[in-house]
Amino acid sequence: MHRSQSRLLSLSNWLCSALLLITLSPHFCRAADNQEPLSLLKQANTTLQRTTAVDVTLVELAQAATGKLVRPLKLSLQAGSPVDLIYHLPALATCEEFTVQVATQDFPKNQLPRVELLASTLSAQSGFQTLRSLAVKATNKPQVQKLPPTAAHWIIVRISSHHDITLPLLNIAVHGHVGPPQSQYAFKEAPAKAFDVLAEVQNSVRLDLSDDELSLYQDVADGELSEWTFAEAALLSSGIYDRDQRRTYLEQIQQITEEAKAATASSKSAYEKGAQLLKWLHKNVMANGYEEQQTDLATILTTGKFNCVSSATLYNIVGRRLDLDLRAIEVPKHAFSILYEGSQHADVETTISVGFNPARDREALTQFQEQTGFQYIPDRHQDKRREVNETGLLALTCYNHGVHHTKQGQYPQALTAYFRALNLDPESPSAIQGALSVFALWAKTLAEAENFQQSLTVVQAGLRLAPKDRTLIHNQRVFWQTWALAEIKADRKESALDILRDAHQKLPEAGFDEMQSYVFIHAGENLVLAEQWEPALNLAATGLKQVSEAAQHELHKWQTTVYQRWSHMAIEAEDFSLAINVLAQARQAHPQERRFLQNTNYAIQEWLASELNSKGLSAAEQLFDKLAMRFDDAPSIQRVLDGFLQRTVQHLVTQDPAEAISLVRRHAKTLGPKAFRDLHILIFDQQATALVSLQKWEEAIAAYQQGLNFLPKDRHLENNLVVVWDQWAQTFRETHNWSAAADIFAQALETNLDERGFQSKLSFCIQELVREARATTGTAIAEKHLATWQTKFPELRELKKAATFYVQQETKQHRQAGQHKLALLVVDRCEHLLESSTHRRLLQFNCDQWAQSHTKKKAWQAAIDAYTEGLTLLPKDHHLQRNAIATWQQWAATYIESKEWNSAISIYQKALQNHPGNNRLKQGLNFCQQQLDN
Hints:
Blueprint: E1 38-39, E2 47-51, H1 58-66, E3 73-77, E4 83-102, E5 114-120, E6 129-135, E7 143-160, E8 165-178, H2 191-201, H3 211-219, H4 230-237, H5 243-263, H6 270-284, H7 297-303, H8 308-321, E9 325-331, E10 334-341, E11 344-348, H9 362-372, E12 386-388, H10 390-407, H11 411-424, H12 429-448, H13 452-465, H14 470-489, H15 493-506, H16 512-529, H17 533-544, H18 549-572, H19 576-589, H20 594-615, H21 617-630, H22 635-653, H23 657-666, H24 673-693, H25 697-710, H26 715-733, H27 738-749, H28 755-776, H29 779-792, H30 797-816, H31 820-829, H32 836-855, H33 860-873, H34 878-897, H35 901-914, H36 919-933
Helix pairs in contact: 2-11, 2-13, 4-5, 4-10, 8-10, 10-11, 10-12, 11-12, 12-13, 12-14, 13-14, 14-15, 14-16, 15-16, 16-17, 16-18, 17-18, 18-19, 18-20, 19-20, 20-21, 20-22, 22-23, 22-24, 23-24, 24-25, 24-26, 25-26, 26-27, 27-28, 28-29, 28-30, 29-30, 30-31, 30-32, 31-32, 32-33, 32-34, 33-34, 34-35, ...
């Protein structure tokens, strides 16, 4: 059993120790849009109405929007003077993506221009809002910006630069679809219906909407105020539900408006009027300063205190009454006003008196940041800005109420405020996120108070509104788990099982079916901690009859770990008998679980080792026999028992080899034939290895020979014995003591092992002995060595091969020195060392080599003499005679070619004297005589 197996069973994924509650949901769903986007500027009847560009025509600029430019259009830009391209669309459309392509790849960074996109549904002169402001990069590739889906009838592409440059324009495109923007509202139920959902969750909270609120929500259903004035709607959104009270505030607002009108009468432009209005309001109406939580219009009128939303609301109400085109910008955690004058605009940070167009005034920005703690976000960061109309600004007031209630833990009131905001501005991402986060927070708070039923009711209400919200989906699962775990820990098994069954019906894929097993696992773990192993196992057996099929699988797994931990504890306590009995019980209960057999093997291994160490070999052997009998049907356990004997034998063999052999023989019946053989081999191998390490070669050989007496013809022992002979001989070969090495192999040959191998090795040693003797003491001693060893081993052909090698080397040396006759004499002298066929072959070869050395030089008589010498040593040798006759013919042919017939006849006559009666020579002589006669 490995130590790692003793750890507790890791429970399933559904029982993760960190049941994480997510309380924020950053995901906002959007209504499906199945329309393929189209290029709005390339539509039929889309026109480029006018431009402020110079040196280019409307036709050329129109081609830039249709992709028909053959080469870049060079657009002149002057520092501080933007170029506007004003397009009219044939029908209301929604802008979704903006693309501009300019050849600015070689522009320095400080000369790169900015491109701004504005849209209006009113006219070519007013009603514009900025959609995106793009800082152009140094590239000639298309640069793409996603747009907030925005309705447009007129589009302005505004290009500006801080330097005088010529901009190579390649393409301008605006993609979207015909028709108004689709709703971004995230909830399944309409905003007004959400109040009904909330009422079902918490009846104690006043959720009834007044007639005035219902009237307001009906009025803004189209996104605009028609029946309600901006001012009265703002008061109602601030919580002023009493009409008389609102009337009093409206009169106050009217008085403020009249005074503001007089104060700004001298202004000559909308921008000047907007700046004067801001300063006047701060001096007269908002004189008591900024207060972060003060979001209500009514409170400004009462106390003079304000925050960003309430100050922007008052500023826009009064400003609109002074004919200023005012809207609002929502940025993260902040809001401010924006004033349009035609297609131009200026931001208005209403929280400070100098907040008109703050980007131009560093001191104003510093004052704003110090007062509010917010960072001003200019219009070049359009992705962080969201422009809203009157109803959107009213929604921000309700949203801020929701934030306040959320911080106070007043979750029903917070949801009411967020739903009010969504009735005014269904697209508000802040209100959507706020509502979803409150559902999560409220449900979490209830769950922490163990009010699980109510927490699930809250989550389910949230999911009714937003069925795909990941946070609520996650937390619903967590709350079911937490509730079930509370019942489990309180040991209310039936209640816990009922909860888990209900949870499984609601969330069939969430793992609650499997979690039923934990109802019994938790109680079982307490029993395990108390070491009440049998009751824990019985509890699991009881649970298997009550839980679902999926939970039965989990409970089975846990039950196996109980057996494992119980047996491991017994092994740690060295109660090996108990461990083996527990594992036997486990194997019977779970026959497919292989770990139990593995752990049984480990327990037996440790038990035998412990018995040997504490009580000695005799006690260990008795235990060995007992275990071998008990587990005679388990091959893997038999291998463990064999392993014990092997380790014991390894230990004994170095101290008492005879006792090691005796141990193996005592347990021969228990051991299988293979184990019996392997242990014997182990003994003799270890003996021999130790002796070899001491260079006690004869004793090592004796050890292996003893082994072969026990195991005749055993290949392993025979091979290792051969290796020992080789190693012994190698000690002499390394010092070039070839005679001693040969003696070793001579002894080895007497064992009748590896006969060919030893013969070859002996021959090699003799060969090297002769070679070194020839080089140092001369041929006589070398040939004496050969003769001596051939006398010792007359039947050993390998020694004849050594002699052949010696003669070949000796004759080769003489031939290379031109001493061919001496080469023949060496072969003749060593005839007694060679086989007769080898002697004849070497004489023939050396005679041929001698003759050929002369024929190459056409020294024909000398070649004939060589063969004559060879025939003296080998009379009537057919090979030498044939080659001698061939040489006579070659000699005669030299005269035949020149038709010197007498000379040729003389050669043939001499040849016949040496080889009388040879037909080939006679025929040659006759041919030459005939030629002479003719």
